[in-house]
């Protein structure tokens, strides 16, 4: 079964869940079914890993490790 990542439109919670065909997942936090399915399948359980952070330098509020400007903050 595929694991999909969702963001709840109601409370903003992010979570991953197994989804069988015909199932409608609900938010584990608030129970809402108003979910936005994230496009990418979860390849790794680690958050803040190598792949996700690379193209979005500064998006998380800090310089990434590969950005030349990172030295300015360290
Ligand atoms: Zn929710």
For the report, how would you describe the main beta sheet? 3 strands, antiparallel
Annotated CATH architecture of the domain at 1-42: Single Sheet
CATH class of the domain at 1-42: Mainly Beta
Segments where pLDDT lies below 50 for 5+ residues?
A: none
Give the strand order of the largest sheet, numbering strands 1, 2, ... along the chain: 2-1-3
Strand content: 15-25%
Shape by Cα distribution: elongated
CATH topology of the domain at 1-42: Rubrerythrin, domain 2
Mean pLDDT: 75
Q: How large is the count of helical segments?
A: 2
What structural category do the secondary elements indicate?
alpha+beta
Q: Roughly how many Å is the radius of gyration?
A: 16 Å
**H/E series:** EEEHH
Q: What level of helicity do the residues show?
A: 10-25%
Count of distinct strands: 3
Bound molecules: zinc ion
CA-CA gap between termini: 43 Å
Describe the structure.
- There is one protein chain.
- 11% of the residues lie in helices and 19% in strands.
- It has 74 residues and is α+β, with helices and mostly antiparallel strands.
- It has a domain at 1-42: Rubrerythrin, domain 2, CATH 2.20.28.
- Strands 2-1-3 form a 3-stranded antiparallel sheet, with no helix packed on it.
- A hairpin with a 5-residue loop joins strand 1 and strand 2 (14-18).
- The longest helix has 4 residues, at 50-53.
- It is elongated.
- The termini are far apart.
- 4% of the residues are buried.
- The mean pLDDT is 75.
- It binds zinc ion.
């Amino acid at each position: 079964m595929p694991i999909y990542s969702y963001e709840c439109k109601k409370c903003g919670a992010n979570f991953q869940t197994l989804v069988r065909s015909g199932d409608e997942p609900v938010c584990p936090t608030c129970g809402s079914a108003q979910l936005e399915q994230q496009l990418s399948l979860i390849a790794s359980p680690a958050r803040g890993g190598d792949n996700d952070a690379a193209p979005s330098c500064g998006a998380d509020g800090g310089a990434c490790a590969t950005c030349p400007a990172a030295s300015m903050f360290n």
